[in-house]
Amino acid sequence: MKGADATSGVRSVIAAALLLMIVLGSLYSWSVFILPLEQTLNISRAGVSGIFSLATLTFTLGMLIAPLLYSRLSAVRLAVCTGVLAALGHFLAASLVPELVFIGYGGLFGLANGIGYSLAVQSVQETGGHHRGRWTGIIVAGYTFGAALCAPAFERLLTNAGPAIAFLAIGFGLAVAIAIVAWLFARSGLGMLGVGSLIHSGPPQLRSFALLWLAMALGSLAGVFALGHAAGLLASLEQGTAFASMGVVLVSIGNGLGRVLGGWSGERDQPQRRVAMLQGVAALALALMASLGEPTVLLLGLLIAGIGYGWMAGAFPLIVAGYWGVERVGMVYGRLFTAWGCAAVLGPWLGGRLFDLSDGYHIALAAAALSALAACLALLLLPPQERQYQIQRI
Predict the structure, then answer these.
(1) With the CA atoms of 365, 243, 279 and 65 taken in that order, what torsion angle do they form, in degrees rounded to the nearest 10?
(2) Is the alpha carbon torsion for 27, 30, 32, 37 positive or negative?
(3) Residue 169's pLDDT band (boundaries 50, 70, 90)?
(4) Among 107, 28, 130, which Cα is nearest to 60's?
(5) Please, what is the end-to-end C-alpha distance for the chain in angstroms?
(6) pLDDT at residue 240 in the model
(7) How confident is the prediction for the chain on average, in pLDDT?
(8) Distance, CA of 182 to chain centre
């Protein structure tokens, strides 16, 4: 397509990807379900938390599976599959049978998130042209903001109608929203997504992949720790619940802001260097938090740690495109995403374990600082990118 038709097609893809990310981002509203499900299902807090842990694992699995479907299903059909899995997962959870809640929400909805996230990132990479970096940053930020938009509505729904009706209503809402996503993809004219082999130029690419995997794992470990323990960290100062909640707000704002800025910075040459710089700044902030422990330092440190984590999420698809090409982003990024899966499982647990062993967060913060610093070093060891891929398929 050319001219006005091409512009309209690109806008439709971006709108579809952003809407898809926002509604799937409701997965991060999980915390509002914990207490109602604990009471309704009559299972322990650890048991209820296991549902979200399973969703994290199937999210990662979906990121791996999605690129394998690119050559078999169009963007429209992938969106439909995502909607069916997301809605069906909530309908099964509405039964309030513990096993079906695990299968539905933890299994199917988590899988839908991985497939949908991959679809959104790949479609914008292929159609965003010279501005694909800023659009990538916006859509991955949309995933984070989706949780902020959905959590209050879900909480009211749970309070007024209970978990069963809430799951049914959310499932129906997801089906309608993702049907609109599929329509937007159809309107855009986007067909099959790009796909390719992971490594296509020998050992240097293997080394780059290993360093990027290590950087994502270590950087995510520090970021997930900050997100998962922000409230507990500030609550340990005993300055009230409002102060503790402020930490959650700041780290979340930092995460969203970092995603937008990280995507925008990815349009420039050698974006991995800017991610390394932000990981270094996050390491310094976490180290100061560990050594000083002052309220203002902790609040500012959480904001910076959130920005560093979000910056990585926004920039990594652009970094992958710079090394492997735009059409391979989904495949390579999906495999890199296993690093995030490992960090998402280990980060909150490791932070809690170190807290229990030391009766405080000082050692946990120091460990997070070292993790961010190691991520910085891994990124600095990457070879320079030889070219930037800029394609537009619509």
Answers:
(1) 100
(2) positive
(3) very high
(4) 107
(5) 6
(6) 65
(7) 86
(8) 21
